[in-house]
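step=encode ok
step=design start
structure_in=
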């Protein structure tokens, strides 16, 4: 009788369209498949339809994990255990992260959403998984009670409570409630209690904060991962293969790490997209600010392209445009990342600096009879223009020079 090679059976809660499930199905030991997804749960019908198309062998439940009847799932797990007794059962939960994440800023948090981890207890008791694996934002470890937000008026000094106003277009109703934010004095209390409660059901616990870029991904997605295992079972963590600064982490006793992979390796630079000059609907000021920050940092610094991040700032409130020479930031479902390339004509005579630069989608400026604009443009460093009557800048092994005649230049990296 041929032995079943499957060693892990996964139940994928919050399965979405199936990213985690695809990773499970691709797992191999000595070239042989070793894990499979046997069931998944998600409240979104479209997500389940996508998941079912890619993983038709799994049992699908279009339901909120808080209200799912566990009877059919429990029976399905029992059948799978009978078919393959050696396979361990893993309960995977990519818990909803929005109401834990700092990206939420000062907006009101949903208290019920923050407690989804507590709804795992009935799955643990009903299914008796061998492993429980959790993925979330790092701030999940700061899970604690909420408090009503108060703000002080800078003029009067009076304190007041901002309101969270939500309008439902379908029902034409409006709800008004206080803004609830995490209590800084109780940070992490509910998280630590939750970990303790899971362990009390017969598990030991480990966690890591991992960056996907450290394992060869093209994105610098930093996430929290927690593992609960039965006492007699081992726990393993992936071995780091890449680093932002490999030289700083190398020593005589460890294998050298590879540098982070540049997202430019998987970007299609031939797809020029839509020009910011000809949009029907102008970009909002915040997006233009981000593009400006990227031009200053990258194009003026000698790069030809960068990424525009539409959805966040740093904690200091500054715009941080991502480079295409590093892993990209976390990719959101709303498509909030774009490639920006500088392509314009620069007139080197008369007018204000702003008026000297025009889009390539329109006509060029007036071509004069005096040819006094021949120069060499260096495409590295900060970028600048040098007269052909003077020595050229340093000659590199890459072709970074262009002779421009008579005076119109297409600028793909800083130059003026």
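sequence_out=
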């Amino acid at each position: 009788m041929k032995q079943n090679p499957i060693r892990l059976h996964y139940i994928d809660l919050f399965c979405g369209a199936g990213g985690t499930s695809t990773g499970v199905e691709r797992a191999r030991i000595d070239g042989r498949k070793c894990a499979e997804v046997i069931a998944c749960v998600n409240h979104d019908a479209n997500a389940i339809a996508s998941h079912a198309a890619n993983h038709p062998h799994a049992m699908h439940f279009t339901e909120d994990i808080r209200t799912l009847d566990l009877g059919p799932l429990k029976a399905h797990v029992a059948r799978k255990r009978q078919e393959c007794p050696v396979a361990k059962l893993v309960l995977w939960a990519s818990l909803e992260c929005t109401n834990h994440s700092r990206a939420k800023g000062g907006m009101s948090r949903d208290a019920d959403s923050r407690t989804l981890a507590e709804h795992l207890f009935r799955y643990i008791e009903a299914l008796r998984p061998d492993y429980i694996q959790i993925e979330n934002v790092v701030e999940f470890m700061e899970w604690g009670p909420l408090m009503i937000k108060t703000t002080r008026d800078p003029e009067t000094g009076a304190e007041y409570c901002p309101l969270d106003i939500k309008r439902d277009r379908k029902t034409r109703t409006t709800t008004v409630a206080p803004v609830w934010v995490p209590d800084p004095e109780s940070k992490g209390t509910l998280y630590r209690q939750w970990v303790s409660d899971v362990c009390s059901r017969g598990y030991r616990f480990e966690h890591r904060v991992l960056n996907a870029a450290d394992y060869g991904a093209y994105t610098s997605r930093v996430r929290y991962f927690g593992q609960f295992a039965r006492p007699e079972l081992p726990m393993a963590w992936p071995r780091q293969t890449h680093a932002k600064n490999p030289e700083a982490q190398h020593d005589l006793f460890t294998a050298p790490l590879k540098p982070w992979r540049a997202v430019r390796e998987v970007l299609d630079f031939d797809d020029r997209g839509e020009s910011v000059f000809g949009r029907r609907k102008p970009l909002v000021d915040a997006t233009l600010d981000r593009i400006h920050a990227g031009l200053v940092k990258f194009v003026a610094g000698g790069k030809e392209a960068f990424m525009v991040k539409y959805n966040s700032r740093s904690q200091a409130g500054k715009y941080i445009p991502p480079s295409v020479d590093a892993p990209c930031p976390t990719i959101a479902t709303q498509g909030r990342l774009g490639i920006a390339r500088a392509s314009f004509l620069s007139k080197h005579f008369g007018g204000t600096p702003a008026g000297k630069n025009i889009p390539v989608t329109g006509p060029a400026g007036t071509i004069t009879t005096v040819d006094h604009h021949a120069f060499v443009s260096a495409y590295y460093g900060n970028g600048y223009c040098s007269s052909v009557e003077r020595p050229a800048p340093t000659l590199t092994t890459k072709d970074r020079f262009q002779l421009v005649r008579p005076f119109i230049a297409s600028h793909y990296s800083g130059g003026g």
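step=design ok
step=annotate ok -> Residues 345-416 form one domain.
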